[in-house]
Amino acid sequence: MRFFEFEAREIVKRAGIPVTDYGFTTDPAEARAIGARIGGPTVIKSQVLTGGRMKAGGVKFADTPEEAETHAREILALEINGHEPRGVLVDPKAEVKQEYYAGVVWDGTAKKPLMLFSDMGGIDIEQVAEEHPDHVGRGHFSTIEPFSDFQAKQVIAAAGVTGRALQRATPVLARLAQLFLDNDMTLAEINPLAELENGSFVALDAHMEMENEGMPRQKALLKALGIGAEEGTREDHTPSAFEEAVKAIDSADHRGVIQGKDTGFNGNIGLVIGAGGGSLTLTDAVRQQGGEPANYSEIGGNPSVAKACGLAKQVLQKDGVEKIAVMMSIVSNTRVDIVARGVIKACLELGRDPGETVAIFRIPGAWEEEGFKILDKYGIEYCDRSVSLWEAAGRAVAKIQGTSA
Amino acid sequence: MSILINENTTFIIQGITGREAVNLTRECLDYGSKIVGGVTPGRKGREVHGVPVFDTVEQVVEHNGGVVPDGSVVTVPPAGTRDAVFEALHAGIKTIVIVTERIPRRDVAMMVELADAKGARIIGPNCLGVIVPGVAKMGGIGGPARNAAVAYQPGSVGVMSRSGGMTTEISSTLTAAGLGVSTAVSIGGDAIIGSTYAELMPYFEADEQTQAIVIYTEPGGRMEAQLAQWVAENNSRLPIIAFMAGKFMDDEEMQGMSFGHAGTIVEGKEDSATEKIARLEAAGIPVVQRIDEIPDLVKAKLAERGGGAA
Predict the structure, then answer these.
(1) In this structure, are B112 and B160 located in the same domain?
(2) Which end of chain B has fewer CB atoms within 10 angstroms, the N or the C?
(3) Complex prediction ipTM
């Protein structure tokens, strides 16, 4: 779950970290009013969930409220990397003495959250870490012991920061660490964190990402930010018709799990494959043997006939799909016979001959005997575990290339 | 011998009255595992396939005359998993298999940190557990006992896999080739897991039955890099062979997407399949293109090291 900057700044503010007196709006006239309230030079920033807005012209400086309105109108109409802005932020132009970076991420190896701090803010932290490692402080912290400010102080000091700046930055990083855990974030970043001419620290920009798995227990925060369930997880890409359809079939029935993706796939072999690891393995095996998958899919957890049928139908109806390959690694709890029934039903309902349409069927495991009987009846080529995943994928590719040639 | 569990291992199932847990209980009992109790709050007094159900882990311990079971399989829903695992850890249970998927990372980190503090080990989450062929299994790994018996025969190869299903596919391949499996561990597909390859290597190293290791890997995370480092720092007697799935995810169109398991999300270039393969191979761990190539390579490695199958 990704947040717009205006939301991320609100999250930061709620955690007690000072922010500037900004305003968010979708209306150019209101941008002017915010500019007038601020009463000095302002920065107008596009609110989009994509990077590179400065380069694209999504960030502009205004000296007067009139200018703020003009810029806001332009920026609101400016699409960046295919994203339409949600609105604009009108931010007082700060008198910055020094820019810092403060961030918290998960470290999967240490299995703990990791604080990062640098006195080289305003640029990408990975670049700073690579070119100026001595300017980056790092420190893990516990998820079960209470957080104490000294842990943040150590990280800031390790970046070479001392004096008053160290004292003022410590509570900011400490609160960022706390909000990271409290709000189930996977990334909490303030960049730049600005030290103003008067010595105070404010967050000039913030970037937050919440773990999708944490969303059910973060409803209060999401509601306070005005984010409704209809926004989903704001994934980077808009789901295709195929992806939407498979999702709808999956949610209509709690038995078993199916998933389908076709972003980036446009071949002629429809894949009805499973489960997680098996799908990754089989997609590779098809491609490495010269096949062109029309989609990625996952099927598992013992789906109903209707669900297996629904997935197979969606795959078969995709543009350019000539045949489908139904393959899984050895299954323990998925009824092979039910998957077979579902796939055959899909073929018949679409007026296709199952024997011609299914290039190969490989789902070894419990109930394979029952499954093979049904497959025999409809003349579908099948195999058991003595044919490897690689070989099964190869047979599907050979069959479809034979047809196309 | 084996790692993590053996013929004497006793364990409980938390969330035992759930649909999947009932099946899992049947499968484990049929396979010969010793399940000494189950826990579902509010269901005390019931039985699941003859296993008595209690409200708390403490009651199971009392029922067993104060003897703390060795392990627990946790199958409770994500919102309750942390509490269930804390309960098991506080009772003194030392080996915990977490089956549950979609647990927030903060909760996983908390469980792992408490387990470390208490000298316990977590396998998973989002995993199928551990199997010692012909001896015992703890979790749904391999499925019903008669199916598990087909795919898993005792032998010399230790298996670790981020995919539960592929643990069985690989083990079945090793079994069919006559090599068999010493212990297979489905380590889980999430971004943070209780036990990584490198963390389990010392167990396999100490297990005389194990002569080689096969791992199933995916894009996302740094645990393959951690294993490569472990190999560089430890003069292990065990040859390791890896299989990498999800190479297609390196394509530009797929950037930022996760496939298969939550942990496959690529957060930095080091997490990609290409980088991982390079890193593993640099550490002397061959990465095969096909799973059916694994048995011959294992045999070749065993011959190189001068040891045969145990």
Answers:
(1) no
(2) N
(3) 0.95
